[in-house]
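tl;dr need the bound structure. longer version: we got a ligand (HDE) that a collaborator sent over and nobodys looked at where it sits. i said id run it. heres the input, straight from their email, havent touched it
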Amino acid sequence: MTKKHPVNEKSKQEQLEQFKTDDRNQALTTNQGLKLSEDEFSLKAGERGPTLMEDFHFREKMTHFDHERIPERIVHARGFAAHGEFELYDSLSEYTKAKFLQNPSVKTPVFVRFSTVAGSKGSAETVRDARGFATKFYTEEGNYDLVGNNIPVFFIQDAIKFPDLIHAVKPEPHNEMPQAASAHDTFWDFVANNQESAHMVMWSMSDRAIPRSLRMMEGFGVHTFRLVNAEGKAHFVKFHWKPVLGTHSLVWDEAQTISGKDPDFHRRDLWESIENGDYPEYELGIQIIDEEDEFKFDFDILDPTKLWPEEDIPVKLVGKMTLNRNVDNVFAETEQVAFHPGHVVPGIDFSNDPLLQGRLFSYTDTQLIRLGGPNFHELPINRPVCPFHNNQRDGYGRQTINKGPVSYHRNSLAANTPAPVPESGGGYAHYQEKVEGRKVRSRSESFKDHFSQATLFWNSMSDTEKEHIISAFSFELGKVKSKSVQQQVVDMFANVSTVLAKQVAQAIGATPPPGEDAPVTKSSPALSQEQTIKKPNTRKVAVIVANDFSGDLPQVLNSLKQQGIQPEIVSTTLQNVKGTDGSELEVQHTFLTSDSVLFDAVYVVGSASADEKFRKEALTFAQEAFEHFKPIGATDEGVKWLKAAGLDSSPGVVTGETTRFTDEFIEAISAHRHWNRHVI
Ligand code: HDE
């Protein structure tokens, strides 16, 4: 009889500890444990002679190095992850029997990997793209993976088209350009010829595709899933993650500059926030539809190009996830983690969404090639926290040492164990949905409306968001070389809005479509980021200070810090800067090592003794922040500089002339951006 492990014997963190090793203060050895006396010189026949074959140390070291890379993910190659925990607000037993969704006092360990989709592993992070938002819940009933994106709909309706979509968006094969960008002919040719993509393209051209931070974006399960309760009753469900800091974006010019200045911008932000104790938080939301109401909507709930408008089907917030621990080793954890939408627990089941159905095949298949064999579930990051037993054996990299001769079912020699568990005892049983039909390769008529929700999205945007969408289309199509593809896309998006299509046509030299938009009959305010939570916490402010700064700067900085704002001093060199009253400030960045785009706001202090070069550098920061609609503050000499440059008295620019400077600057920072500013 197999030894019994108590369920949840170890927390995920304790489990991972077993595999960690600290090499400091240890003797250097080979992988066989042989202590080495020398590690800098290969074994040679004479000091100037050839290297010898018998140098087993050289060969082991070099062989290992030669094999250090594994194939990158075909999509979502560029990613970053963190550990955390999930806490439930109230029991969800009404909807599901999943154990981790029953008891609010249980904390479920999680591991979340965020990613871009199209770029290679080394590509920049602020590119225009959807972001992956994959969560592994280590529950006492096994791992549950919610493998979502930051956009609630997808480009295609059937998984069989995924290779085509990805081939079209990846760099073009003849010259492998462009990297991590959809602004090229093959992507837009795909869009125009696969018009089911219209809705997601609208999201991709919106600010959602250039998030300010991984901590400030929503997550969506995309597909319709099923929750099943202990009585066997099922409900359709869509999953959401809502960031506690609100949903915020960069502007496109800024995103492009950051790609060069700091290609690691998003991972650095996530890593530093966790190191600083500013733990990213997301609330889990669910939308529920009764099974009886499956056909009550003007869209098919199985169609992954459709969302459920929150105004019609409210999002109930059911719990909170907090990311509170960085990984110890990116390869071992972030790279080797293997997600799969098919990793479910009792009480969570699938729908017949044809995109989801295809994903249920693809994810295991991809891990086999990526992680080199069928034993990837044994890697520390992928191990469940509950015991697992079955008759699977052997294969590359097998770590478990299964004892005894029996590895088959049914048997008598091991009393027919490991044994299946009935549903009443926690065994997974698939929801017994009734299905009937002919074998067909076709798509349901109910999937044929590609434009209504794309229009709903457009109609729900603020004027600024609409302008950004028009600019994004104009940029992307402006990079497309084929006139025919450009025109096809303009004609296609006339089905969404003629205002949009006309302006894009104008920008790219295409023929504008005829006609006018129909009057707006429906919008969904929840889709606009304008409605989002606005908080100052964790916002980074570049404080530009020179020697001989005056006034109560340290006091202002303290007030900002009390609001969770992070002022960072920027100056000419890394020498401390000194105030006229003898106070000193440590400088974190120089004009050489940082840039306005890397901050949420700029605060110009300067000083009367600062030279012309300093003033110019400070104004470059302020000017760039101004153009990116960012909050700008100025006190002391900084006020004069901004005035002389004509940057004062605009929305979101707060100067020391106001008596409420600190409060107003904090308010301006909370607003994120000041779109009503006149930027030429
Ligand atoms: Fe994925 N997707 N996908 N996807 N996906 C992968 O699996 C696939 C889709 C998503 O951080 C791959 O392990 C197909 C939708 C995320 O490790 C691969 C289809 C959504 C991640 C794969 C889709 C996603 C992946 C590549 C169409 C949002 C990164 C590496 C049917 C709901 C997970 C891997 C991580 C990764 C296949 C569509 C999200 C090849 C066939 C829709 C977040 O298996």
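gonna send this back to them w/ a short note. The chain has 17 helices and 18 strands.
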